[in-house]
Amino acid sequence: MKKWQVYAYPFLTGFLTVILYYLLQTARNSTFQWPVVIGLFIGITCVQLFLYRRAYKKLQNS
Asked: What is the pLDDT of residues 17-27, one digit of tens each?
């Protein structure tokens, strides 16, 4: 794992989650709610940043 992957992949996953949420909402003809989107993006991105950074540190120490 390279250092750029630690910071690029979580944001990419968060962005793709927002796109998936948008597609699911438009397929159901529901309203698009920004607080849900912001919560999904921040939640998923922060959790993955934490996990990727922890895995990167473990790889560096071994």
From this structure: 999 999 998 88
Residue with tokens 């990167």: 56
Handedness of CA 23, 28, 29, 31 (dihedral sign): negative
Both structure tokens of 7:
């910071």
CA distance 20 to 38: 13
Tokens of 17: 């989650």
What does the block give as tokens for 57?
């540190």
Its pTM stands at 0.80
Distance CA 11, CA 40 (A): 12
Which DSSP state fits 33?
-
Q: Give the pLDDT band (50/70/90) at residue 38.
A: very high
